[in-house]
Amino acid sequence: MKTLLFVLMGWCLGVLAPVAAQTTAPVQPQRTEQVSPCITHTLQDNGHVHIVKVDLPCPSVQLVGTAVGTAPTTVKNFAFRNRLNVAINASFFDPQYRPQGLVISEGRRWDNSRDTRQHAFLACTAANRCRIDMPNHKAEVNPEWQTVIAGWQNLRGGTYVCARGASASCYSNARAAHPRTSVGLSRDGRWLYMIVVEGRLPDFEGYTLNQLARLYRSLGVRDAMNLDGGGSTTLVINNQRMNTLPSRQLFLERSVANQFGVRDTAAP
């Protein structure tokens, strides 16, 4: 009797296994394209995760922030105006479109802009020497900084970091899956990464910050930071928006307070 039972169970599993395999969505392989001589764009997670990698020592690479007095606008408009190969949205902002944290463009600090322990930032000189602010740190402005964009949570060593005394919203934002925009630096400072994660889609919710931090760690990046995300999340490459926007905003790109982009003058 036991033998007959095992035979029947094996037959049932053999019949059901192909059905299960057919209902599992195939995972698309990683795809990489050369945006310009010094910039690549890689797609992962069935095309929902965009990884832009910039070779900072390239003499043709120029980093660009939103000029003072030109906000708010969309990332696509910002990219077009500045003839950029890549552009993303940047800092969190208030209802008056004032960026939170320290923001510097073309060496000029935005009015009422300052660093706090609650904010991270990416700062770059005219020679593309960049750094990401450490967690729980309030920095003084370095006069050599040409472009600075502010973020919120640090992404460090494969996990997210909220500053000491951070509000509960820092943790709730980190733990939920959302569309994400972020930047990171390789340990040697050579490679700048911009990762944009889609989300709030019928088939893809987005990433938590721990998921995003682990992705950076898999790329060999220890220090990164979370920028404004959600419905603001936008990636534009060569004047084309690459990410799918949430359907609840009718797929319309939002205007944001400031942006960050890369121009590669060696591109045709």
Please give the radius of gyration in angstroms. 21 Å
The profile of the biggest β sheet is: 8 strands, antiparallel
As a percent range, the share of strand residues is 25-35%
Number of helices: 4
Q: Order of SSEs, N→C?
A: HEEEEHEEEEEEEEHEEHEEEE
Please report the total strand number as a whole number. Answer: 18
Q: What is the average of the pLDDT values?
A: 90
In which order are the strands of the major sheet placed?
A: 1-2-3-14-13-15-11-12
Which shape, going by the Cα principal axes?
globular
Helix coverage percent of residues?
10-25%
Find the structural class using helix and strand composition. Answer: alpha+beta
Spans with pLDDT under 50 lasting ≥5 residues?
1-28
| End-to-end Cα distance | 75 Å
Brief account:
This protein is α+β, with helices and mostly antiparallel strands and 268 residues long. Helix content is 18%, strand content 30%.
What do you see in this structure?
Helices cover 18% and strands 30% of the residues. It has an eight-stranded antiparallel sheet with strand order 1-2-3-14-13-15-11-12. A five-stranded antiparallel sheet has the order 4-18-5-16-17, covered by helices on one side. The N terminus is likely disordered. The longest helix has 22 residues. It is α+β, with helices and mostly antiparallel strands.
